[in-house]
Amino acid sequence: MPPVTAERVLSQEELTALLAEVAALSELRRGPLPAVLDTDFIRTGLHSQLSNGQPPRSVRIARNGAVRLFMEYDTLVETGQKLPKFAEQFGIPVTDLRRALNEDWLPNIDVVRLPPAIRELELRALQVRERDEDDFPAAALAALLSPCLLLTHNSKHFSVLGVKTRKQGVDGLMAVVAINVGDMQVRAVISLPTLPLQAAGAAMKWATDRIGPAAWVILAVVVGGAFYWYCKQPPERRDTIKRTTSSIGTYLMDQYTEGAAMAYQASLKLRACAVPSPEHRTPVSAILRELALSSESLSAAQLAELLDPSVRPPVAELRAFLRAHDNEVFNQVRRGGFVLGTHYQLPG
After folding, report:
1. Residue 106, Cα to own-chain centre: how many angstroms?
2. Better-predicted residue by pLDDT, 201 or 172
3. At 139, phi and psi to the nearest 5?
4. Cis amide linkage into residue 147, ω under 30° from 0
5. CA nearest 147: which of 296, 20, 305?
6. Where would I find the beta strands (DSSP E) of 93-244?
7. C-beta neighbour count of 149 within 10 angstroms
8. Mean of per-residue pLDDT scores for the chain
9. How many other CB atoms are found less than 10 A from the CB of residue 296?
10. Long-range contacts made by residues 128-132, C-beta under 8 angstroms, separation at least 24?
11. Crossing angle for the helix pair 136-145 and 283-293, nearest 10 degrees?
């Protein structure tokens, strides 16, 4: 019988599953995460804003750039039509709700007007339409942008998109926040040891500009003096210096591990909360998603470079598609440069 070792070779199935999970996690963390708003989530957010005196967490996170909020145009229309009902439930004038949406929400939301042909590309969205026609627009946009967050409390109609609980969208937003906190902690630990070197480099540049090459002679004297001082210390004091240095290194390593673990666990949570990727992404879905992840406008040529070859149309066809849906799905903010969606204001 061969000896049992602690190492174990992964099977082909396990390796494939592991690589798929790594790919899924990396896809969720590429660019600002798209999040699609549903009407009932906006109602809850408005109620929270009235109670707390500030926009809800979803809007604040969008302002920080961690997520990008999207809304289908018909969902926005439905929200506007329901504002009088919401105002009556909250006991406030409807103008106050409209003002809150126009001033605090909509400047941070990109509204996408999907034509029927594009809405019906995703089977999962069609399944939602069979349950509720009003939820079809949000479902279609979320399915096209997936993996993304679907901010809704309706786990019944949107279950085919992976929504299992009322709080799933909020949990996903909190996972995004935790990922950013963990990443910031890791970056801080990595950059901390380099800060003295950066400061010393800036100081030497300043000194060299002022007094010339003599600055390097002074630096050599200072470093040599410090080393000589350390060598002249009693053994007990040198041990104390070593222990202090070691404890600092241990603390930094602990902080790095803690930040990395926080980011990884939050990534797993986010994956559980997000609308899963489609089994077979269409070219239209790939185009919309790349624009959703971009922090700046893209030309047809730039967009084509980002698309996977399996779903990449010729640049001329891509350019024609973008122009054909300008001012509805896309918005041409510069000559030949497109973004996904545009900003709207509710009338009145």
Report:
1. 19
2. 172
3. -65, -40
4. yes
5. 20
6. 109-112, 149-151
7. 30
8. 82
9. 9
10. 128/157, 128/158, 128/160, 128/161, 131/156, 131/157, 132/157
11. 80
